[in-house]
Amino acid sequence: xxxxxxxxxLLEHGDWQAAxxxxxxxxxSSGSWAHGIVHIxxxxxxxxxxxxxxxxxxxxxxxxxxxxxxxLKAETGSD
Length: 79
Prior knowledge:
By secondary structure, the chain is mainly alpha-helical. It has one domain (about 5-75). The protein has helices at about 5-10, 15-25, 30-40, 45-55, 65-75. The two termini are about 20 Å apart. About 35% of the residues are buried.
């Protein structure tokens, strides 16, 4: 199974569809956060809000998606 690190790399490159296939199998808080980011990138803010809630985080504005990816990467220690 691909890892959250791989999903983050995919998000950084804008490939939210491939990242989604990874994060939908990850039930961790970080996985839920990444799942929320996927849905922001997809343009589905309602679904993003659900996943951000599962991660215990506030839903950001869609314009902040790059900062969210960077914060997720920093918090998880992803390379």
